[in-house]
Give the backbone structure.
Amino acid sequence: MLLVAATLLFSALDPFAQTNDPLVYVTNLADTTIARETVVLTERGWKSEVALDVPGQKVTFRATLERGEDALLKWKVEVDRPGNPMVDSTCDAGSVQVEIHMTALASEQPAPTKLSFELADDVAEVTPFFFENLMWACFHEVARQLVPLAAAGELTADTRLTAVLAQNQKETAVTVASFERAAGGGWRFDTRLGGVEIRMFCDAEGLPVRFEVPAQSIVVTLEGHAVATSDEGRSVVDRGDWRKLLSQPTHEVVHEAALRVPMRDGVELAADVYRPAGEGKFPAILIRTPYNRKNEGLGSGNRFAKRGYAVCVQDVRGRFESGGVFRPLHQETADGSDTLDWLAGQTWCDGRVGMIGGSYCGIVQWYAAKSGNPHLKAIVPQVAPPDPDENFPYEGGVFMLATAWWAKVLTTMDSNGGAGLPQGVDWAKLLATLPLSEVDGALGASHDWFDEWLAHPPTDIEYWSDARYQDQIPSMDVPALHITGWFDGDQPGALRNFPRMRREAKSELARGGQFLVSGPWGHGFNATTRLGDVDFGSEGVIDLAALELRFFDRYLKGIENGIEKEDPAWVFVMEENRWRHEKSWPPEGMRETALYLGSDGDAHKRNGNGKLGPVAGAGGSAAADEYRYDPANPPTIPEESWNDVTGQTATMDLATLPDRDDALDYTSAPLAGPVELTGPFRAVLWTTSSAADTDYAVTISRVDPSGRMLRIAGGIQRVRYRNGKDEPAPPGEVVQVEVDCWASSIRLRAKDRLHVEVISSAFPGYARNLGTLEPIATGKTIVVATNRVLHDAEHPSQVLLPVVPREGAQGLVFER
């Protein structure tokens, strides 16, 4: 890795000279202009003014950068909006001093906040640069460093620069992934800022003239400068002749705001419409959201409308400007159907409607499909949950405390119009509140529906019946493009719905119109090629927008683009870092292969004698392992997990977490050769407990030769709900517990080991089992449990792995 010398900034080789002519950068989000930035280059730096205009955020901010002697940088940012900070910073080669003031527009001027922080040791050798989001002048400093190196033949992939985020008191890496000469003698640099890919084009003089942020559909152009770019797609997933058939952005757009859409009970829901200008009827695309329709419309409204679709973005019932009361999950079937009828009746709609959206905006599409409305012709559910007893809000019978996080997110959005995630929350402390019904209040996010969900366990079929949809799949007659990721918190939705719809959907058109894309992504899907320290390569982010457009073109416009003639599933194989085109999910040829737990009686530590092996009862001399589970002392996960929808923390090195006595650890021998694991994982445990009830959480990981341990899959199961019914096991009785560990795709290498951890809590991701049979909403009594995992010949506790034979990786074989 090349560290750029500090003296480079001040060398005589200046890639672009001072000019009095302003440079104007135009930022477009999904074909919509959201910002204009005017930059004036000065003798020792530059001045920039950004005019940002997005719904709820019309603001101007200014920045000045000045380079001094001895690698000193001076940086100032001012925001023209009351209550926003002004940042005044200096940075030398090793430390940063930050002074944060309130802007001069504030009515009262508090004393400035003064901060100081040191840069990491390896950063101290590098001249950093300051960075502000959506201020592209900051990348002039990147060009100033990279262009001379590239011109001299000294630039290499993995060259790293450092961006200082003064207001956030941290630095982040800017890494060069690849670079090449561009047309006209300029350069193209593929960089990553943190984990976000930013492609920068420079002209022959080294001046940045274009930026692309593919995952966020952002394109930035310098007025007066044209750059030749390729439209071949980014990977095998999004590349092909079909791109020539995609609908083109030839339409002007009419935007109609704050329309009122009547529901059957008289409640009116607020909607914005983006549609092609002029006469004519067009297919429509509906987005139904609890997250503020103005934000959702910004990305998709103009993008699809310019390509010949009418886009309706609607606040769901009880959210933002829509009437009624928000009862999530329970209200969306009828409201979705009524909205489809309203859309089909508009003069500009041809009666064919599709839907798109992620997370909650994804599950509402399944409720609309459940309604059987004939106008719904295609859906694109992105990272959408399955039924409420399979993931959100209950998984394995255990209440997901991410539900409380979501309640807090909604409350935060209510107060600021929909921007940002809650900050400054001590999640571990507040989520430990008992009884559980008071958690939302402790978070300052009280919602009636939260208490209602707690009061109804997953086996309360009558209550949850209108929030379920998967049992209606045989009646659904709609093609679907399912999108998820290996680290997506709602992953079971796509990976269970896709094969069921392929088998059971109502018509041949619907069955043949199912497609799956599962990438190396978290819930913030297709956003970064890197999660934590794990790099998934250049194809970790794809042109997903093109795939979605291709799907809608086929099923809403009837364009014959061949999508239904191709294998329907795209699966990203981690470690190989390549996409695999599959005929089915799980993949054809997958062999579920068992590894059995065993020990010599001490599996309490990672370096204990817990073993994983291919033969039942041969893993050691002991018949069982026993541990003590205290609900008052559960394991925890890092705090940042609660603000991490991208999945960054999902790739952390688990070996750095505490090695606890209340967990059981089982490790295999080293692999004799590579093996691909692609498909669903599960564990079957034979257990006893001294408590009236308990949970079992299983994590399956890979341990590389260096000792780094990375999670592959995992899940949790509450004993009383192990059979899908409420059947508590008497204390001491041996019961079989199956744990659904979700799915993944990864190629393991020779010398890697497999590791399984069994523990009785996944707090704070999931509510603790207190060891009693009290209702989870009101229970406060804590009972310490003695739990046992049996692994003798009669009780073969095991994990079942999805082995897919491939060339050079035929099966699961271990060194002797």
Summary: The chain has four domains: 6-222, 245-390+465-582, 399-456, 591-803. The domain at 591-803 is CATH 2.60.120.260 (Jelly Rolls).
